[in-house]
Amino acid sequence: MFGAGTVLSLWGILIWQLGFQRLDRIPIRWAKICLGGLRLFCGIKLRIEGREHLPPPGGAIVAAQHQSTLDVLIWLTLLQHPSFVFKRELTKIPLFGVLLEPTGMVPVDRGGAGQALRKMVADCGKALAAGRQIILFPEGTRVAHGKCARLHPGIIALAKASNLPLIPAATNSGLYWGAKAFHIAPGTVIVRLYPPIPTETPQDQILNRLAVTFYDQGVN
Predict the structure, then answer these.
(1) What residues pair up with 191 in beta bridges, in sequence order?
(2) Which of the chain's ends, N or C, has fewer CB atoms near its CB within 10 Å?
(3) Which pairing describes strands 133-136 and 187-193: parallel, antiparallel, or unpaired?
(4) How many CB atoms lie within 10 A of CB 73?
(5) Can you tell me the mean pLDDT for 131-135?
(6) What is the CA radius of gyration of the chain?
């Protein structure tokens, strides 16, 4: 992960400085290398359930459960033009951080309240208009497998503003690579997609359905 990330980050910075704008394939290539290494050296396999709910090409919003770094790698390879909403602090990571926005990811200032939410929605709108698929983790951070967390309503503001349904997705990735763990256990990571939630669904019902998807019907 770190070796491939360093090499690809240096390459990305070079071609970015040379004026190339299409950097979105760099994180996808990195994720494929990492998943290949995890499969070969750590015994991590991947099973996707509900593939019929994967969005077609064009703008879409995925509301994904977040248990592990694995989730980022998986969604980078599942979608055609993925764009993550990420906490702005990640831009401070050496090499990798400087490329987050140029590769099409959307930063959010988690301490910025309403103004930060409006900017996030506006930036996501531009990404959606460019045909990107937005991945947003409503839990806001990695949550250990079997634990529950408060779901942030920002994803609802995004869905309402874009007039796009939310595609819920649950996972059991935390069973094999914990939120703050270095050890990786072999096994089959499951990602389960569910039918989209219509935009006109009331806010409390959206949050309730996401909670049920993540913690009741989710992958155990």
Answers:
(1) 48, 171
(2) C
(3) unpaired
(4) 25
(5) 96
(6) 17
d(CA 58, CA 164): 11
- Which residues does 199 contact at the CB level (< 8 Å), separation at least 6? 159, 160, 163, 164, 165
Closest CA to 162 of 193, 120, 195: 120
Q: Which long-range contacts (CB under 8 A, 24 or more apart) does 95-101 make?
A: 95/5, 95/6, 95/9, 95/10, 95/13, 96/5, 96/9, 98/9, 98/13, 99/9, 99/12, 99/13, 99/16, 99/23, 99/26, 99/27
- Between the alpha carbon of residue 188 and those of residues 45, 207, 216, the distances in Å are 5, 28, 20
142 vs 131: CA distance, rounded Å:
27
* Domains by residue range for the chain, with CATH: 2-216 (3.40.1130)
Rounded CA-CA distance 100/64 in Å is: 19
User: Among 40-49, 107-116, 162-171, which stretch is predicted with the lowest mean pLDDT?
Assistant: 107-116
pTM for the whole thing? 0.92
Closest CA to 176 of 32, 37, 69, 62: 69
Return the half-sphere exposure (C-beta side, CA atoms, 13 A cut-off) of residue 107: 15
Which residues does 59 contact at the CB level (< 8 Å), separation at least 6? 127, 128, 129, 131, 132, 133, 134, 162, 164
Are 187 and 70 contacting, i.e. CB atoms less than 8 angstroms apart? no
